[in-house]
Amino acid sequence: QDNSFEQFIINYCNEKLQQIFIELTLKEEQEEYIREGIEWTHIEYFNNAIICDLIENNQTGILAMLDEECLRPGTVTDDTFLEKLNQVCATHQHFESRMSKCSRFLNDTSLPHSCFRIQHYAGKVMYQVEGFVDKNNDLLYRDLSQAMWKANHSLIKALFPEGNPAKINLKRPPTAGSQFKASVATLMKNLQTKNPNYIRCIKPNDKKAAHIFNDALVCHQVRYLGLLENVRVRRAGYAFRQAYEPCLERYKMLCKQTWPHWRGPARAGVEVLFNELEIPEEEFSFGRSKIFIRNPRTLFKLEDLRKQRLEDLATLIAKIYRGWKCRTRFLLMKKSQIVIASWYRRYA
């Protein structure tokens, strides 16, 4: 019920994860159709980049203003931090505060004067400003680290490497918010180099009990997790896409014209293959570099045909091998019989 600095940075991380989810599943997928020349009607969706910017902007972001309050001289309190937020973020559509210059929240009794509220992608969250400044400061003072580093116990010494006199840094230690922001940036960079798969978990009730399904709670999660937009993009788009070369290499055995070797461009080979298999034209589209298959069952059909073809090829190979082995044994027996017969006639 009472959200402070810890919940704020956790929600910031969730916003960044939601942003990369949008980038990879909604924005990137629709842009790929356009790049590949596929006929496509753009589907609108909510992009939470504006919320991420509210939190992490280097000049006007909440974390930047919190760091500024922690580092500036003079009297610094949580109230001065909130006052600064009210001045800079007053007109932002996702920031709400009773003390801001935006008059639309002056009579909002659900929002205390010492709090601010952010409209996250998953709903509105109210934060108690008390403790933000203290929790953002790194309270591990340099002299304490140096004292711990001088301890005889190897574990304690290893826990405080910054106390090493050879690594003394006269700069002020980074704040907790800036450290967390750097960690999130590193996480996002790592995720963007991968091909992540998402599993969205829906909570049926808040009691963690079986056989209870809260319709309102589930609808709220489905709406704010962006699942509706994702389903619309998936249903209107294509379930499977693959470059022409690996697609032809995998399924070329299904067509006599492409098996065992296709002489020509890979796209032309895929076109011949799909025409031979009589796959309906509405089930696939040819992009500039990829083949797009709309329905998963079309892909399942291709896989079933490939599996059956592999079994037929395995049977053919086994049949030819058994025939070769039997013929080799027959020829050897025939040769042996001739040798035995000739020696017998010579003896007789």
Automatic annotation (TrEMBL):
Key words, A-Z: Actin-binding, ATP-binding, Calmodulin-binding, Motor protein, Myosin, Nucleotide-binding, Repeat
PROSITE patterns, sorted: MYOSIN_MOTOR
Domain spans labelled Myosin motor: 1-307
A Pfam entry, by short name: Myosin_head
Gene Ontology process terms (BP): actin filament organization; actin filament-based movement; endocytosis
Residues passing through the membrane, by range: none
Record region (Actin-binding): 184-206
Gene3D superfamilies referenced in this protein's UniProt entry, alphabetically: 1.20.5.4820, 1.20.58.530, Kinesin motor domain
GO MF annotations in UniProt: actin filament binding; ATP binding; calmodulin binding; microfilament motor activity
Cellular component terms (Gene Ontology): brush border; cytoplasm; microvillus; myosin complex; plasma membrane
Repeat listed as a keyword: yes
InterPro entries: Kinesin_motor_dom_sf, Myosin_head_motor_dom-like, P-loop_NTPase
Family: Belongs to the TRAFAC class myosin-kinesin ATPase superfamily. Myosin family.
Name of the protein in its database record: MYO1B protein
Organism per entry: Pandion haliaetus
Gene symbol of the encoding locus: Myo1b
